[in-house]
Structures are given as C-alpha cells and as structure tokens.
Amino acid sequence: xxxxxxxxxxxxxxxxCRLCPQMIPPVVMGQPVASEILLVGQAPGDKExxxxxxxxWTAGKTMFKWFESIGVVEDDFRxxxxxxxxxxxxxxxxxKGGDRVPDKxxxxxxxxxxxxxxxxxxxxxxxxxxxxxIAQYLTVNKLVDVIGKKFELTMNGVDVEMIxxxxxSGASTWHRMSPGKELLAQALDxxxxxxxxxxxxxxxxxxxxxx
Length: 211
Ligand code: SF4
What we know:
Elements (H helix, E strand, L loop, with lengths): L2 H13 L21 E5 L6 H4 L6 H12 L4 H7 L1 E4 L18 H18 L3 E4 L2 H4 L16 E5 L2 E5 L17 H14 L1 H16 L1
Parallel strand pairs: 1-2, 1-3, 3-5
Antiparallel strand pairs: 4-5
Bound molecules: iron/sulfur cluster.
C-alpha cells in the first residue's frame, strides 16, 4: 500500500476513536497528505469539530498569517502539510474560563495516533504549536527557552528537526509583546530557511503551474 493509502486507513481508524470518556467528538483531522512537515497543535477548540478541520477559528487565522508572512498561504498549507495534535477531540470548557487542558491520561491515550503518524510520515521537520505540544518533546519551563531555536531529536527511530512556535491564541499576549514578538520572528525565519519549507514552497509553485 502506498503512503497516502496508509495515512487514509490510519485516519479512518482515528475518526472512530472514542477512547476518552470526557472528550467531545468528532475527531478533528487535517488532510491525509504524505508530507515531510508535521504540524502538532494542542487540541481542537469548540468550533473545529463543526467546521471539520484543525485551526479553523481565530487562533488558526493568526497562525496562517504567520505562515503567509514566510510564503505559504492557508489553503496551500492545509493541502500540503500534515496537521496533527496532542489530542484530537475537543476537551470541553474549563469552568474557570477557556478550554479544558487535556489530562495526562488523555494525552498518553491519544499519543498512539500521533506516534503512528510519525512512523508513517517519517517527517523531517516537526512544528509543535503551543506549550502543551512543545512539552511532549522538549523540556520547557518558559517559552523564551525554546521559541526561536531549532532542535534535533530522534523520535520513534526517526531523526527530525523541530522548530517550536508559541500558541497563536488571541487570549495570549506572549507572541505580541517583547521578547515573544522577536522570538516568534526568529522562529519563522528558521522555518523559512529550513530545507523542508523551501521544498514545500517549490511543490506549491509547481502545483500552481500545473493548474
Ligand atoms: S482525544 Fe484522541 S484518544 Fe481521546 S477519544 Fe479523541 S481521538 Fe481518541
């Protein structure tokens, strides 16, 4: 079976997952694309399930503006980059405000899907978005310690580079104020210089020319 078929079969099984009793379906997934870039978000919000795609609301608008600033618009990104997350279902609201943060058991349970995706995709570049996603791979006390840097690691036997981004949530001011603003610019610069990103831009260009 080719890679895309394997990814489709994986997503079919994932879409039926109901392992976490507190999580609210549907499972939210990106396109079944055989990409060497893997984006890892935290968990969908309350709008993403209905809209059927990750980062479909305000945080997504901000994140896609970041990517557009380094040459890749939202539609192209969605079409060409595999979008994953630490948890794939909406965790529900936190009675104290905002969305509930998935608990350790939910994160561990859902990691099987993400691990399978790493195995299938063999990504060269992982972009974890937000502290919860970054913390699955790196020790992170403060975002200033990891944003604006590139990391090399081996995951599930796969050598990958990782460029973390802050969460683009409107509720967070981190990425809009110094030093977050400058560190985000550094992280986007690292992305723009990365071979996988340059390859993505070339693929988009050649797809546009074929249309
Ligand atoms: S969060 Fe992940 S493991 Fe839990 S029900 Fe949703 S897809 Fe399944």
